[in-house]
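Problem 12. The chain below contains 72 residues. Write out its predicted structure in token notation.
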Amino acid sequence: MRGFLADEHIPLSTIPGLRSAGHSVLSIREDYQSMSDHLILELAEREDLVVITNDRNFGDLIFNEKKLLPQA
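Solution.
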């Protein structure tokens, strides 16, 4: 099963709930404080994780800059 990568803007109270439901969750706030958005996306891609975020910058990185989109 694919895991999750919780961005630092996700409340810490959300993470234990996901974990107790059986999901693997890597937390930026717990494990990689102050990591840049670019590095978060690289980590998520490398570890095959779904990013959970409230930060609109990720949309800009992915869609406007064409980061992490499959090659046609």
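Discussion. The chain has one domain: 3-64. Students who got a different answer should revisit the alignment rule from Section 12.3.
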